[in-house]
Amino acid sequence: MGTRRDFLGKMSLTALSLPILYSPTSLFAACEQPYDGPMLRVAIMGLGSYGTRVAKAMVDCKRAKLVGVISGTPSKILKWQATYDIPQKNCYNYDDFDAIKDNPDIDAVYIITPNALHCEQAIRVAKAGKHVICEKPMAINAEEAERMVNACKDAKVKLLVGYRMHFEPKTVEVIRMRQAGEFGQPKFFQGQSGFVMGNPNQWRLDKELSGGGAMMDIGIYSINGARYMLGEEPIWITAQETKTDPVKFKEGIDETITFQMGFPSGAVASCLSTYAMNHLDRFYMTGEKGWVEMQPSTGYGPIKGRTHKGELDQPHSTHQTLQMEGMAQLIFEDVQPLVPVDGEEGLRDLKIIDAIYLAVKTGRKVTV
Ligand code: NDP
Question: What is the 293 CA–ligand 1 centroid distance (Å)?
Answer without folding.
Answer: 30
